[in-house]
């Protein structure tokens, strides 16, 4: 067992009782979610920060020792990479996202330059047994998934936000809806169902007024998939609805055609029946048209409203209104109207 001092601990390691003084093992299980320590080998001018367990963004520099989690990422706008076949101290891996997911980068976005390189130091150990100095490799999450649980939303209205792709305005729309509901006196809980471990979006929902928030990584999922998406969504719906909010709002990270489990969630019959309102976030009118049609044809789901960059001015809104016969509101400039649209759809009364 080796001891080193960590400079920064990624937010993916939240829920783990580890400190800056790390106890490392050279034996590293090569599995998603295993926490490892790496030494940063290069400097970067862009995409050069790490979200800490506190939620703060800290700039990384060469020589920093950081804690992250083994995992994969399939991002349209960002780094993509996979889990290596084996991991041992001295191996060079890459930081795939700001939350601290580490793997083998196999696709680079030109806007971000090359990723951070990290020399593996060892698996981070935790000591779960009081009074015993027997360490076990720490893993992501405070709770574990238990199969595909029965879904019980207890009649709570559920608002889902889906996007045509990454960066289509889903979190901004979720925050606008949460804020308006909160200002109108309703208690709102929120979660993020899919994507790669990063707490930024649910922290923004908390800032907007969400009472309770959770994210898939709280349940040991580093990057969601078709296999984990429905189970973790059911689990989070059950968890939050048991707290009796007036509304639950959740974001489906990535896009309708991505690989993070959005399609599996929308195809889950019990989850579909629980949805009271679906907001589509689209980057342009053609994407809005395709998203609305895809939701109808593939999942038999009607889109309640469209938002996102496609609604940045009156031209886009009019095109969506006339061609799709769906309300279009911009989450930034029409946040009150978007929130009121959801309130009317849900028939909420105070």
Secondary-structure map:
Layout: E1 2-5, E2 8-9, E3 21-25, E4 35-40, E5 49-51, E6 57-59, E7 65-70, E8 80-82, E9 92-95, E10 101-107, E11 117-126, E12 136-137, E13 158-163, H1 170-183, E14 188-194, H2 200-208, E15 213-215, H3 229-241, E16 247-252, H4 262-267, H5 269-274, E17 277-281, H6 285-299, E18 305-307, H7 314-324, H8 335-346
Parallel strand pairs: 2-7, 7-10, 13-16, 13-17, 14-15, 14-16, 17-18
Antiparallel strand pairs: 1-3, 3-11, 4-7, 4-11, 5-6, 8-10, 9-10, 9-11, 11-12
Helix pairs in contact: 1-2, 1-8, 6-7
Give me the CATH superfamily of the largest domain: P-loop containing nucleotide triphosphate hydrolases
> Major sheet: size, sense and barrel closure?
6 strands, parallel
CATH architecture annotation name of the largest domain: 3-Layer(aba) Sandwich
CATH domain class name of the largest domain: Alpha Beta
CATH fold label of the largest domain: Rossmann fold
Structural class: alpha/beta
Strand content: 15-25%
The unreliable regions are none
Specify the overall morphology: globular
The average pLDDT is 95
Radius of gyration, whole Å: 21 Å
| Terminal-residue CA separation | 59 Å
> Could you estimate the helical fraction of the residues in percent?
10-25%
Order of helices and strands: EEEEEEEEEEEEEHEHEHEHHEHEHH
Number of domains: 2
Assembly type: single chain
In words, what does this structure look like?
By secondary structure, the protein is an alpha/beta fold. The chain has 2 domains: 2-137, no CATH class; 158-346, Rossmann fold. It contains 8 helices and 18 strands. It has a 6-stranded parallel sheet, sandwiched between helices. Helix 1 packs parallel to helix 2, helix 1 (170-183) packs across helix 8 (335-346) and helix 6 runs parallel beside helix 7.
